[in-house]
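Worked example 2:
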Amino acid sequence: MPSAAVVATLDQVTTRSDMSNKISIMVVSGSRERLQMAAMVASVGAVSGNDVRVFFSMNALPYFTKDAVKRAPVEGDVGRLLEEKGVPPFDQLFRQATELGEAKIYPCSMAMDILQLKQSDLEPYLSEPMGLTRFLDDASDAQVWTF
């Protein structure tokens, strides 16, 4: 007889259709590799029919101002290869996530205050600023990824 730890009733088994189709992504790093991976999760998630919410804060947010240099520093060999091989850049993938799927990208209101940014300073595909408390509340029933 199996132990109680491995016995599951049918109502305890979660199927794919029962799982949330929400993906929440918190991006705080300014490195090329982390921005790229976050953008890949956002774009693939959005075009796959998921409800994607991205939250830019700390060192990530400055890359999404209208006049920003879009070349983030690399952490290692893979970051250099991303540039050499012509992989679509992270900002393009984030923009496509909003255009091709159900993705919303929110700048952190605290980071905007610290960096003295206005909504008009940001790329047009970013939504209105959001605070961390609201982002976490919205993410309570979602897969959460942090980069």
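The first strand starts at residue 22 and ends at 27. The chain has five helices and four strands.
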